[in-house]
Each structure stands twice: as structure tokens, then as C-alpha cells.
Amino acid sequence: MSDTIHEFDVLKTAETWAGEGRSLALATVVETWGSAPRPTGSQLVIDADGNFEGSVSGGCVEGAVVTEAVDVIEAGEPRMLEFGVADETAWRVGLSCGGRIRVYVERVN
Predict the structure, then answer these.
(1) Which end of the chain is more exposed for a tag (fewer CB within 10 A), N or C?
(2) In terms of Cα–Cα distance, which of 95, 78, 93, 67 is closest to 30?
(3) Which residues does the UniProt record annotate as the domain XdhC- CoxI (predicted)?
(4) Inter-CA distances, 44 with 7, 30, 36, 91, 93, Å
(5) pLDDT tens digits, residue range 53-108?
(6) pTM for this one?
């Protein structure tokens, strides 16, 4: 499945869930470095019960993002989340799973 189709599905799900009266947050990848499995612009929609659709990391940090998103829905304050290795030394020592991802989480309704 292409990222364009995947993103469409996330937005379609958000529209459907909003129509059902669910409170929602949208998580969007805003920066990556290294081996992040999802490109900038990838999204995850989350409802207040922790249900979600989409992906911001291919499963690496989705659980943490969902937890933060539920808090964002309740508090109404957006958050910038950062996960991963913080500097380039990881690549010099051969950590193949190194990298960093920044995800912006905001309430959308």
C-alpha cells in the first residue's frame, strides 16, 4: 500500500469517527533522522478510548503516541514528541536501529 493511500485511509477514518461523535487527536510525523520507517507527513488518528488507525513508525512508538494522544484529547493542549537516538554517534558505532522521529500530536475536534 502506498503512503498516499495510507494517509487517505487515516483521514477517512478521522472523518468517520468524528461523524460518530468521537473525540480525536491526529499525530503527524514532522521530522525523521536515520532509519525511521515512516516518512514525514505520515499520520495516526486516535480516539479518546485509544483506538487508532494509521502509522507513524511502523509499530516502534505507536503505543507511546496513542497514550500521549489520549492525554492531548483530554487536556486539549498539543504536544511535540521525540523518540530515538539523539545524536549521530549511533551510526559511528553501528547501531542499525538508530534514528529519531518527531511527532506532533493535536486534538482535532
Answers:
(1) N
(2) 78
(3) 17-84
(4) 9, 12, 15, 28, 32
(5) 999 987 778 999 999 999 999 999 999 998 876 555 444 443 345 678 899 999 99
(6) 0.82
